[in-house]
Amino acid sequence: MRYRAGHKQETREQIVRTASQRFRKEGAEGVAIPDLMQDLQLTHGGFYRHFNSKQQLFIEAMNKAFEDGEVFLKLATEHAPKGEELKGIIDRYLSMEHCLDVQNGCPVAALSGEVGRQPKSVRTAFDRAIRTFISRVVPFVPGKSVKDRERKAGVLFSGMVGALSMARAVSDPKLRAEILKSSREMYIQTFCKP
Q: Per the domain annotation, does 123 fall within a domain?
């Protein structure tokens, strides 16, 4: 059977997109390639026409998740009043909606605990993506110099990741809401003032 031009690329993109969501929701070890392919109504053997290994898919899926993060940042800053873009980022990142949407949310909060146990190629891709993400936040962070703003952006991002991870981990909905609210308030007060 002949497929139309672009079919192979579309299939690959579908696998990456779905894997990106599944890895964030279920973790790297929670996703079995045969199950992923079956859910997409594709053959397990067909996976190897697109990827050499699960590790390669994980890296590409992680990169896709960071691309989603770029869209997340863009929406957060576009909907914020001029001069309040950082507050918009903090509000959106530490929202209940983002907390509950693990499969479409921040890959750092979803995967950082696992990435440390992955091969160096995965960790290197993760490093690169985090640096890029932080560099997108830097223009909105007050500071005396670019280096100062970069430092603050890194601290803010790591703190927000921790708060989001903790909020996702607790079982008590009231505690989850309080973690998010307290963190939002503290980060806005600490980082949004010149």
A: yes
Distance from C-alpha of 33 to C-alpha of 158, rounded to nearest angstrom:
31
Report the CATH number at residue 112. 1.10.357.10
pLDDT score, position 117: 87
Locus of tokens 């918009």: 88
Range(s) of the domain holding residue 134: 54-191
Cα–Cα distances (Å) from 161 to 4, 90, 132, 186, in that order, read: 42, 11, 16, 14
In a domain, 3, yes or no: no
pLDDT, one tens digit per residue, over 137-166 is: 999 999 999 999 999 999 999 999 999 999
Task: Report, as ranges of residue numbers, the positions in the chain whose pLDDT lies below 50.
Answer: none
43 is a domain residue: no
